Amino acid sequence: MVDTGGIEGVYVGGRGNNNAMPTNANGIAVINNVPDYYRTNYTIDTNLLPDDVESTNPNIQMVLTEGAIGYRKLNVYRGIKALIKLTDPQGRAIPFGTTVEENQERRQVGVVGEKW
Question: Which overall architecture, per CATH, does domain 2-78 show?
């Protein structure tokens, strides 16, 4: 079982994503035919991600014992991509290379680039 945190339409599959399964409305995908005692790699098909969704780590590995049910949580985020102009309180441009972080999880979401 793969959990994308409530984001539906994320395709997760094995090698080559030939049998990729989409996550449902709750962000859950069930992958069947996982071999016992064998390291298996699964990947998000980033070519099929909706435009407002991204993943910071699209790869997972599983090694399950016979009859086990595995659970993996993937870091998948939904948001709008934007090109914005950042200034400090005095109206000056933010220095090149400054990282931009999201408030809630304190994860880096961008880097200040050059002026165009």
Answer: Sandwich (2.60)
The Cα 85–Cα 65 span in angstroms is 52
Q: pTM value?
A: 0.70
pLDDT string in tens for the chain (116-residue length): 999 999 999 999 866 556 788 999 999 999 888 889 999 888 898 888 888 998 888 998 989 999 899 999 998 989 887 777 888 899 888 888 888 787 777 777 777 776 54
| Structure tokens given for 17 | 């994503």
Q: Where are the domains of the chain?
A: 2-78, 82-116
CA 39 to CA 62: how far, in whole Å?
6
